Amino acid sequence: MEKNQVEPPKANILVVDDTPDNLRLLSTMLTQMGYEIRRVINGQTAVKTAQAAPPDLILLDIMMPDMNGYEVCQRLKASEKTRDIPVIFISALNEVLDKVKAFAVGGVDYITKPFSEEEVFARVENNLTIRRLQKQLTEQNILLQQEIRVSEAAQRGRQRAESVLRLSQFYLDRFRESIFFIDSESRFIYVNEAACSNLGYSREQLLNMGIHDIDPNFPETNWRSHWQDVSNRGGFTLQSSHLTQDGRNVDVEVTINYLNFKDQEYLCANVRYITNAERKK
């Protein structure tokens, strides 16, 4: 297949901000990154636009007249048609309470103004990756259930499930970010190729390890509470450091989301490695 035929389809992003300069800046930035952008300047229009043609992701300003970003997000999450769209809040507000409220109403991430192009790109790409993964696993789960219902033998059902998981691995190995599936005992049950490359371990080695083997700063006693937090609120992002196979500590930003696949519960960790330039900032 020729290179110009393997380009993935562009994601559709809805940008909501009552300041025209911010709209132009974000639109230009994201368009150059290959995304299709729609722009609106108030909350009422944002809700109507999202209902009429749901985007893949929404960048939402908090401080807007008439209907602020929190209210917009609550309305979107109350509708079956728009409740699964990831919402990234953008705001000049930088207090912990503001961020807590953003996550409490259903936001998946938070960017503080003034923002950098690298940060916007990383957070947008991370959350779109998670969203694509969730949709793919949901579709595969539906297909699996349909196949199992018509199957006369449990063994044949298990074989089909294994085939779907192999397809999932092929799909996830195409991502540049490290992706880990983690079970309730904090063990890795799936890692993609990028995770192996970034940490220097083979896939077989990582599948015999757990989160505490690569993140010594993560107390084992906290895993259950984090599992419950993610299950209840849908996900969160944290900064930490990961230990590579050759003993180096690398700074990372980890976005953790809850997934349910074939009646099994997992946490999906999407890892972005923090560059030296970002660390200096």
3D architecture notes:
The chain is α/β, with parallel strands linked by helices. The chain folds into two domains: 3-115, 3-Layer(aba) Sandwich (Rossmann fold); 123-280, Beta-Lactamase (2-Layer Sandwich). The protein contains eleven helices and ten strands. The strands form two sheets. Strands 2-1-3-4-5 form a five-stranded parallel sheet, sandwiched between helices. It is globular, with a radius of gyration of 20 Å. The mean pLDDT is 81.
Tell me the series of helices and strands, N- to C-terminal.
EHEHEHEHEHHEEHHHHEEEH
The top level CATH class name of the largest domain: Alpha Beta
Overall spatial form: globular
- Beta-strand percent range: 15-25%
Strand tally is: 10
CATH topology of the largest domain: Beta-Lactamase
CATH architecture of the largest domain: 2-Layer Sandwich
Instruction: Give a short account of the largest sheet.
Output: 5 strands, parallel
Show unreliable segments: none
Helix-residue proportion: 40-55%
Structural class: alpha/beta
